[in-house]
Design a protein that fits this description.
By secondary structure, the chain is an alpha/beta fold. It is built from 8 helices and 11 strands. The longest helix is centred in the C-terminal third of the chain and has 19 residues.
Length: 216
C-alpha cells in the first residue's frame, strides 16, 4: 500500500459484532469483518483490520503492528502495557470475579484468608488483587474452562469473567467477590498517536460523537 494506513486490531469472539457495529456508526466501514470467512486480515480504503484473540489485542497495539485496538478493560489490565486509552466504548459489559463451590467447607472471607489457591486466565490481576488484601495466592493459569478447576480439585476457587452468572450456577459455583468491572475500550499505540495524529484524531473524534449520541 503506497498510501498511509491505519491498522485496527479487533477481538474475535463476543466483542467483535459490537465492535464492528460501533466502527460503522463512527464512519469506518468494517462490515466485511463479519462475513463468513476464515480471513484474518481485511482492507477497506486506508483502513486495515486484523482479527486476533481478545487477549492479544493489547500486544498487537503495543508493538505497533496495529495502530488502534478495541479490547476489554480486563484484558488491558492483565497485559499491563503502556497504551493510550482515550475512550470507554461502553459495550461488552462484564465483571472479573472470584467464585467458589457452593458447598465449600470454608466460605470466602478476605478478612480470614491468608492463603488461596486459585485458577484463572488472569494471573497478573489475580495476584495483584489478593496480595493487596494481604493474602498469599497460589495461582494456576488455565486457558480453557476455568470453572472445571474447583470441580476436580485443581483449585479451591477461580477468578473469571462473569456476565449473567449462569455458567457458574450450572457448575455449582457462586460469585463471592468482584475484582473489576469491564467494558470495551479504545487503545492506541503511543508512537502511532504521534506519527499518525492527523489520521487518529478524526477517528477518536468520530467515536466520541457516537458515544455522545448514545447518551442522548
Amino acid at each position: 500500500m503506497s498510501y498511509e494506513t491505519i491498522t485496527f486490531a479487533l477481538p474475535k469472539g463476543r466483542l467483535l459484532k459490537d465492535a464492528v457495529e460501533f466502527l460503522i456508526k463512527a464512519g469506518i466501514d468494517a462490515s466485511e469483518v463479519l462475513s463468513q470467512t476464515r480471513k484474518l486480515v481485511f482492507v477497506k480504503g486506508n483502513f486495515q483490520f486484523i482479527l486476533v484473540k481478545p487477549m492479544d489485542v493489547p500486544t498487537y497495539v503495543y508493538y505497533g503492528t496495529a495502530d488502534i485496538g478495541i479490547a476489554g478493560k480486563d484484558v488491558i489490565e492483565e497485559k499491563g502495557y503502556d497504551l493510550y486509552e482515550p475512550l470507554n466504548l461502553g459495550f461488552g459489559e462484564c465483571r472479573l470475579s472470584v467464585a467458589e463451590p457452593v458447598d465449600i467447607k470454608e466460605p470466602y472471607d478476605v478478612e480470614k484468608l491468608s492463603f488461596i489457591r486459585v485458577a484463572t486466565k488472569y494471573p497478573r490481576i489475580t495476584g495483584k488483587y489478593f496480595r493487596s488484601k494481604g493474602i498469599h495466592p497460589e495461582i494456576i493459569t488455565l486457558y480453557g474452562s476455568v470453572e472445571l478447576a474447583p470441580l476436580v480439585g485443581l483449585a479451591d476457587r477461580i477468578v473469571d469473567l462473569v456476565q449473567t452468572g449462569t455458567t457458574l450456577k450450572e457448575n455449582g459455583l457462586r460469585e463471592v467477590d468482584v475484582i473489576l468491572h469491564s467494558t470495551a475500550r479504545l487503545v492506541v499505540n503511543r508512537a502511532s498517536l504521534k506519527t499518525k495524529y492527523h489520521l487518529i484524531k478524526p477517528i477518536v473524534d468520530g467515536m466520541k460523537k457516537v458515544l455522545t449520541f448514545n447518551q442522548i
